TrEMBL record:
Keyword Isomerase: no
Protein name in UniProt: Exopolygalacturonase
Domain of life: Eukaryota
Gene Ontology biological process terms from the UniProt entry: carbohydrate metabolic process; cell wall organization
Molecular function per GO: polygalacturonase activity
Signal peptide residue numbers: 1-28
Catalytic residues (positions): H257
Similarity remark: Belongs to the glycosyl hydrolase 28 family.
Locations listed in the record: Secreted, Cell wall
SMART domains to which the protein is assigned, alphabetical: PbH1
Keyword set includes Hydrolase: yes
Keywords, ordered alphabetically: Cell wall, Cell wall biogenesis/degradation, Glycosidase, Hydrolase, Secreted, Signal
Length: 416
């Protein structure tokens, strides 16, 4: 009998060792070796309820305070389930020396009671150095509850236009495997951030949802947005003032209004935009493809070194467009004074596909500051008119205040 017991213990021990060996093999290297062991802060431990109806705002906030105060490596975990929250602010500075991890596995749903929002932001990340957000979960802004109320569409500070995810003053961010769904306003704003990399995002809202821009970037340096799918009711990505060195790669956009630099020149003292690279992207059924837009009668600023390369257009209404006479709606137009935004060093390379409108390329630059140093190469855009026949017709281009250097095969032929 004694020998039997000992045997069982040994067998169990061997099993345990084997199982943990297997676990290491299956799930990659032991966590402790790859990165310092993280202390886990689970929102459930702070009273959050994954039932989709209990207000978990205070629990989220308390779990964040604990994570952010923790001086050692820390991870905030939002597990599976549906969590209902009002406005939440993940604000630093934090005490951690290493990046903070936020792992979202479940669904976070926004409260639809907009009277509780003090700003047009739902989830805010602010003043953090080192932020890792991932986990495969979803931020659901519950936009359909407010979209029909068009009353405050024109008010910038309107709470019912809350942005799903606002990143303000974040340095060294890694955002991945996150879904943003049906925001009340924009999906994501990146403002005042440095070294911000986002990939494998899924951004989704109906094509007719009002002003649901995908990713809106301003005043930020060294931003990468890659391998993401964006379907929404406004620009998939918009890059406005003060952005330097942004790369957008392997993004699929549609429905939506395309990938835009601008609008620029809306405000006084805007900072310039430099070094924009948009490559290997696909636009499907969008209103615009790749676009640079500036307001007429604008204060002076500049947009320099912008490259669009290797872009596929499927049934895109304005595949290539520079519009220096932009106005968002008839009411907001500023007459016909010239834009003072200087656009220079722009490349459109290897852009192919189809458009349902005759004019596939529009380049309307400012009469005061004609576009400088614009190169166009290897373009093949086919006009496929809407209709039962879908016969190919000849696309055309339109230019004003621009001289274009053309190389390679370019269809439609460009006005020089
Ligand atoms: C950005 O955040 C840091 C702390 O991480 C803070 O010291 C700094 O003042 C913030 N800058 C701005 C412009 O808010
Ligand atoms: C280009 O983008 C597509 C998705 O649109 C992706 O499947 C492909 O791997 C990308 N190619 C390169 C060279 O990155
Ligand atoms: C233009 O931007 C690209 C990134 O798209 C960068 O690699 C290059 O150095 C920039 N060129 C100049 C002249 O600044
Ligand atoms: C192409 O786009 C036009 C206008 O947006 C639309 O009417 C048409 O149905 C689309 N065609 C296809 C094949 O999706």
């Amino acid at each position: 009998m004694t020998t039997f017991k000992v045997d069982i213990k040994i067998v169990l021990l061997i099993c345990l060792v084997f199982v943990s060996f297997l676990a290491d093999q299956t799930f990659g290297h032991p966590v402790a070796v790859v990165k310092p062991l993280q202390t886990i802060f689970n929102v459930l431990a702070y009273g959050a309820k994954p039932d989709g109806k209990t207000d978990s705002t205070n629990a989220f906030q308390a779990a964040w305070e604990a994570t952010c105060k923790h001086p050692e490596p820390a991870r905030l975990v939002i597990p599976g389930g549906v969590f209902l929250v009002r406005q939440v602010k993940f604000e630093g500075p934090c005490n951690n020396k290493s990046p903070i991890y936020i792992q979202l596995r479940g669904i976070v749903k926004a409260s639809i009671d907009t009277s509780t929002y003090t700003e047009p932001e739902w989830i805010t990340f602010e003043k953090i150095v080192g932020l890792n957000l991932n986990g495969g979960g979803t931020f659901d802004g519950q936009g359909p509850a407010v979209w029909p109320k068009h009353d405050c569409m024109s008010q910038a500070k309107c709470a019912s236009r809350a942005i799903n995810l606002k990143f303000r003053n974040i340095t060294n961010a890694r955002i991945g495997r996150i879904t943003s769904k049906d925001p009340k306003g924009f999906h994501m704003c990146i403002n005042g951030c440095n070294n911000f990399r986002a990939k494998a995002l899924e951004i989704t809202a109906p094509g007719d949802s009002p002003n649901t821009d995908g990713i809106h970037v301003s005043h930020s340096n060294d931003v990468t947005i890659a391998k993401s799918v964006i379907s929404t009711g406004d620009d998939c990505i918009s890059i406005i003032q003060g952005v330097n060195r942004i790369k957008i790669a392997d993004v699929v956009c549609g429905p939506g209004h395309g990938i835009s630099v601008g609008s620029l020149g809306k405000y006084k003292n805007e900072e310039d935009v430099h070094d924009v690279l948009v490559k290997n992207c696909t636009l499907i059924g969008t209103k615009n493809g790749v676009r640079i837009k500036t307001w007429p009668d604008s204060p002076p600023s500049a947009a320099t070194n912008i490259t669009f390369t290797n872009i596929k257009m499927e049934n895109v209404t304005n595949p290539i467009i520079i519009d220096q006479n932009y106005c968002a709606s008839a009411k907001s137009c500023r007459g016909n004074k010239a834009s003072n935004v200087k656009i220079s060093q722009v490349k459109f390379n290897n852009i192919r596909g189809t458009t349902p409108t005759e004019c596939a390329v529009k380049m309307h630059c400012s009469p005061s500051f004609p576009c400088q140093n614009v190169q166009v190469s290897d373009i093949n855009l086919k006009y496929v008119p809407v209709g039962p026949t879908n016969i190919l017709a000849r696309a055309i281009s339109e230019c004003a205040n621009i001289r274009v250097a053309v190389a390679g095969f370019v269809i439609p032929p460009l006005c020089k």
